Amino acid sequence: MPDLTKTAEETPAQAPVAAAAKPEKARSLGSDAWHDLRRKPIFVISALLILLLIVIAVAPGLFTSVDPRAGDLREHFHTPPNYSHFFEGDWFGYDGQGRSIYARVIYGARASVVVGICVTVGTTILGGIFGMLAGYFGGWIDTIISRVTDIFFGIPLLLGSLVILNAFTSRTIWSVVFALITLGWTQMTRVMRGSVITVKQADFVTAAKALGAGTGRIMFKHILPNAIAPVIVVATISLGGYIALEATLSFLGIGLQDPTISWGIDINSAQKLIRTAPFALFFPAGMLSITVLAFIMLGDAVRDALDPKLR
């Protein structure tokens, strides 16, 4: 006959084992993507570079105490890069007006970061709203928004920005932001529209409609969280492109103007003296390239993490 007392005593001891065997709670799309991103070296490297760039843009005084606009004509390319005086402002040498190239590279990050972030946020919000309206409602709303998008999409971004900025007598950071947002929202609209059309056909959206959920709740509670991933990827990659476009406009003389400090302005000033003082061109151009590359790398990592087909 079995010992019932012993069996009863051993049963509570087995409870922790059963509790430990419970399945792990499923992660959301965001947490799952973050779990993958933390293990990607390309994401870590690009994120650290972007973090450093943001710190430089917010507090350039932490990296140099030299006035980037103060020039000394006695240093007119006479002093080459001097690596023994890192924080004194002459580490990168001096430009054609005797201004510290190192200080101008540091302070030039602010204009690029502000333009890139503001244009990306503006185009994402504007394009996201239009794309969601066109994709969800369809019909004549989709037709009107799509035709307007096609018209703006047919205007080259660089050429259109030149035309818009040429109408401003004083071109500042905000005029450049306005010009790029005016013509740059079309890509976000197309991406959001296609994503919304795909998501609104899902079963959970049909179930929400059957349960009587309103249009606003369906759009912002059910469709938007599931349709935003492609937009985030495109926005991250586009940010680097907008920084490069701002530098291009400033290089052509139609973007930012003095006294604003920009890498594009410095590249334009140094291009004529590339043989006699190549360092004046190399440092701002190199900083611009590293910045754009960092955002492109970040966008690639985010795309791989958010795209279920690449898992």
Can you give a write-up of this model?
This protein is mainly α and 311 residues long. The chain has a domain at 48-64 and 110-263 and 290-310: MetI-like (MetI-like fold), CATH 1.10.3720.10. Helices cover 68% and strands 0% of the residues. Helix 11 packs parallel to helix 12.
N/C terminus separation = 56 Å
Can you tell me the CATH class of the domain at 48-64 and 110-263 and 290-310?
Mainly Alpha
Helix-strand string: HHHHHHHHHHHHH
User: How confident overall, as mean pLDDT?
Assistant: 82
Which segments are poorly predicted (pLDDT under 50) over 5 or more consecutive residues?
A: 6-13, 17-21
CATH architecture of the domain at 48-64 and 110-263 and 290-310: Orthogonal Bundle
Q: Name the CATH superfamily assignment of the domain at 48-64 and 110-263 and 290-310.
A: MetI-like
What portion of residues belong to β-strands? under 5%
The largest pleated sheet is described as:
none
Q: Tell me, what's the shape?
A: elongated
| Radius of gyration over C-alpha positions, nearest whole angstrom | 27 Å
From the structure provided, what is the oligomeric state, counting identical versus distinct chains? single chain
Class derived from helix and strand content: mainly alpha
* Percentage of residues assigned to helices: 55-70%
* CATH topology grouping of the domain at 48-64 and 110-263 and 290-310: MetI-like fold
Count of individual beta strands: 0
